[in-house]
Design a protein that fits this description.
Hypothetical Protein Ychn, Chain: A, 21% strand, alpha/beta, five-stranded parallel beta sheet
Length: 117
C-alpha cells in the first residue's frame, strides 16, 4: 500500500504537522509492506529546517521527521514553497528532498491513499 500525506501548515501553531507525522509513523509501524511519502507544501515547508527551538507545549517535529526517515519514510518539500520562504538553499533535515508539482501529481496518481492535513 502506498500512502501520500500532504501537509500544508507550519510545524508549530497548530497540531496538523504533528498529527500527520503521528499517522505516518503509525502506518509504517503497523504495516511493514507500506510505503509512506510526506509532501510538505506552503508553510509546512518550514518543518524541515533543522535545530528549531520547539515552543512550549508542542512536540519536536524535527525529531518526528527523523524517526519517520529512519523507518524508510520519504519526505518531499515543494521547491517553489521553499523558495518563497527563503529556505531552498538551507541544509534541511536529513532525508529530505526538494520536489515539484509534477512529482506531486505523479505521487498522487501512483498512491492508493492520499491524505491532507
Amino acid at each position: 500500500m502506498k500512502t501520500l500525506i500532504i501537509i500544508n501548515d507550519a510545524p508549530y501553531g497548530t497540531e496538523k504537522a504533528f498529527n500527520a507525522l503521528r499517522l505516518a509513523n503509525q502506518i509504517l509501524k503497523d504495516f511493514e509492506d507500506s510505503e509512506v511519502t510526506l509532501f510538505l507544501m506552503a508553510d509546512a515547508a518550514t518543518c524541515v529546517i533543522p535545530n528549531q527551538k520547539t515552543p512550549k507545549g508542542y512536540n519536536n517535529i524535527e525529531r518526528m521527521l527523523k524517526g519517520f526517515v529512519n523507518k524508510a519514510g520519504k519526505i518531499k518539500v515543494c521547491k517553489s514553497c521553499a523558495e518563497a520562504r527563503g529556505i531552498d538553499q538551507l541544509e534541511l533535515v536529513s532525508g529530505t528532498e526538494l520536489s515539484t508539482m509534477k512529482e506531486l501529481a505523479q505521487l498522487t496518481y501512483e498512491c492508493n491513499k492520499v491524505i491532507t492535513f
